[in-house]
């Protein structure tokens, strides 16, 4: 997507927001909107209203909330990558704040399920490239999974870049995080189960600071684990552990060292399956970097060595 010169703070008269949210997320409400980009032209966008603040609605809490969201929006707007979703700006909605984002279509899992001949290898490479870009900026995403990768004109866009700081300071507790279990690294829930101490983990992101025991130790390695699970989802067209009905049951499998089985159809090359499996290593420091994952997929994409997947 082409970059747009829109200020982080957007005037309300330049944006017409629907009065009722069209979707309710885990920690946000989504509103359809039209953003005026010139005297006569409007851009269809989505406003993501962030909610779930821990503190009572007092002046101090509102100031802290506003500061955090401004920081998140400024950081997100600073990213420039073809597979990182743009953030056009920030809008005040009553006392809450809303991020102004592109209007996209289905998520990446829905896309590959509806387009069985799509180039899944290329999609995986693009997503790995987006994660590598964030990591090069010392930012850990903390929530890489298909629902946070939306399609726009056939291109996957990783959203919620930099929102880890907001998650850690809101009511985004493990009760909400149960939907992440299929994609989350085991050390996030019990480092002792996998023999990994916090100090042995890769360097944490500068903007993701745990504030209490509910906040797991997100690292570059935990992002790569989630990237590997997301790539598995793209290659297979199914959820990790598809035989498990409830997401929270997946945690038991993960902590017991179990991982998804290699897809039979579509088939996956040995090189690709090896990098995917290594990304799930029990020890975070043994996992590849996102840049390495991107490189391997790029090489395989050039050779088109995934049978029945490359379009």
UniProtKB/TrEMBL annotation:
The keyword Transferase applies. It comes from the Eukaryota. InterPro entries: Kinase-like_dom_sf (IPR011009), Prot_kinase_dom (IPR000719), Ser-Thr/Tyr_kinase_cat_dom (IPR001245), Ser/Thr_Kinases-Pseudokinases (IPR051681), Tyr_kinase_AS (IPR008266). Keywords: ATP-binding, Kinase, Nucleotide-binding, Transferase. Residues 16-297 form the Protein kinase domain. The keyword Membrane does not apply. SUPFAM superfamilies: Protein kinase-like (PK-like). GO terms for molecular function: ATP binding; protein serine/threonine kinase activity. This is Protein kinase domain-containing protein. It comes from Amanita thiersii Skay4041.
């Amino acid at each position: 997507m082409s970059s747009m010169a829109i200020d982080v703070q957007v005037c309300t008269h330049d944006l017409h927001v629907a009065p009722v949210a069209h979707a309710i997320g885990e920690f946000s409400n989504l509103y359809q909107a039209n953003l005026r980009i010139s005297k006569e032209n409007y851009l269809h966008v989505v406003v993501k209203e962030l909610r779930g603040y821990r503190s009572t609605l007092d002046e101090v809490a509102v100031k802290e909330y506003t500061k955090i969201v401004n920081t998140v929006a400024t950081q997100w707007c600073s990213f420039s990558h073809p597979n990182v979703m743009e953030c056009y700006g920030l809008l005040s909605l009553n006392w809450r704040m809303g991020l102004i984002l592109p209007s996209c279509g289905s998520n990446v899992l829905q896309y590959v399920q509806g387009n069985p001949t799509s180039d899944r290898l290329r999609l995986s490479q693009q997503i790995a490239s987006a994660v590598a870009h964030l990591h090069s900026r010392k930012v850990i995403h903390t929530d890489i999974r298909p629902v946070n990768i939306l399609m726009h004109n056939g291109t996957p866009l990783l959203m919620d870049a930099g929102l880890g700081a907001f998650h850690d300071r809101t009511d985004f507790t493990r009760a909400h995080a149960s939907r992440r279990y299929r994609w989350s690294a085991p050390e996030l829930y019990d480092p002792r189960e996998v023999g990994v101490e916090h100090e042995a983990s890769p360097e944490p992101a500068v903007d993701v600071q745990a504030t209490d025991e509910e906040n797991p130790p997100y690292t570059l390695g935990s992002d790569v684990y989630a990237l590997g699970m997301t790539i598995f989802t793209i290659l297979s067209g199914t959820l990790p552990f598809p035989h498990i009905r409830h997401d929270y049951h997946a945690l038991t499998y993960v902590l017991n060292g179990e991982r998804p089985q290699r897809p039979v159809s579509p088939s996956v090359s040995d090189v690709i399956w090896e990098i995917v499996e290594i990304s799930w290593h029990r020890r975070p420091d043994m996992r590849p970097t996102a840049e390495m994952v991107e490189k391997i997929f790029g090489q395989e994409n050039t050779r088109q060595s995934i049978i029945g997947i490359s379009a």
